[in-house]
Amino acid sequence: MKRWMRQLHVEDLNVYKSMPTGIEDDYIARFYERISSQNNKLFGLFEGDDLIATAGYTLFAGQYAMLGRLRTSQYVRGKNVGTDVLIRVLELAKKDPSVKWIGANTEEYNGPAMRVLEKINAYPILPQHAAIASDVTGLGESGTVWNEIFDLEEKKAWLNATYVHSQKPFPLQCYYPFPATPELFDDELLNEWRFFENSDASRYMILKKDMKKYHYQQVIYPWDDYFEQPGLWETVRQGQVLHQEEVSDVVYVWLDLPKDHAHKLPQDHPFNTSQIWVLHEAVNKLQPAKVHSKSS
């Protein structure tokens, strides 16, 4: 029977639910309205009248397309249906003139998804732990809390020096890292994020709020000496406590820890590092940035 694909919209929730995925608590069904609207595009692959697979992408900063939402019917697995739907969605994303980068982020242990990404020529560029902790008290070198940076240009200078010049992947949200360009950072976001600098202005970090089922304080730190800088984790803990007071709920600390930095963790560290996510890249048409940085 011939396969065909169309975009799924908010009113197609029941169509999506008609596909037997075997996933007990499917986040796509729970957040379907958001996942099928605004900057999110969701597509369904059909055989006759039956939905047999989905995939889609989310557009960030107007030019980054993150592939995902891959689901297949239990009745067609092993028939390259996942590869089929993702290839079709990838081709649609390539035709969007605003899209300069296309990639995907998937768990290292998700063998089927990793194989599909290999088949569509999406190559792994960064494996990292989603290191999550509920309490970072006493972690690392003790010291005074770092100085907060409020100046927008100083924030941009730090980002340019540590991410934008090299297009180093920057964790824009939990689960969503992208090669850094100036377009990734609008002023509104930078004003929301809290930047902190150590006493001799040789290091900085970003604390930002995220919500992915749970509340997270995401820690962005571009060096590998996480546990050697005095006061770093006191600053994180202070920010975590403030965040908890604001939301009246538990807030977890989230650190995107490159896999080759895992050996830096202290023996008695509080992080759950069981999740390893691998950023893949299928298309990169990003232009080198011409920006001023803190080091220039």
Describe the structure in brief:
This protein has about 300 residues and is of the alpha+beta class.
Shape: globular
Q: How many individual β-strands?
A: 14
CATH C-level class of the largest domain is Alpha Beta
Largest sheet: 12 strands, mixed
**Largest sheet strand order:** 1-2-3-4-5-14-6-13-12-11-10-7
Give the termini distance in whole angstroms: 61 Å
Q: So, CATH architecture of the largest domain?
A: 3-Layer(aba) Sandwich
Order of helices and strands: EHHHEEEHEHEEHEEHEEEHEE
The total of helices stands at 8
Quote the average pLDDT: 95
**Could you say what the CATH topology of the largest domain is called?**
Aminopeptidase
Structural class category: alpha+beta
Summarize the amount of helix as a percent range. 10-25%
The Rg value, from CA coordinates, equals 21 Å
Q: Can you walk through the features of this model?
A:
With about 300 residues, the chain is of the alpha+beta class. It folds into two domains: about 5-100, Gcn5-related N-acetyltransferase (GNAT) (Aminopeptidase); about 130-275, Aminopeptidase. It contains eight helices and 14 strands. A twelve-stranded mixed sheet has the order 1-2-3-4-5-14-6-13-12-11-10-7. It has a two-stranded antiparallel ribbon with strand order 8-9. Strand 2 and strand 3 form a beta hairpin. The termini are far apart. The mean pLDDT is about 95.
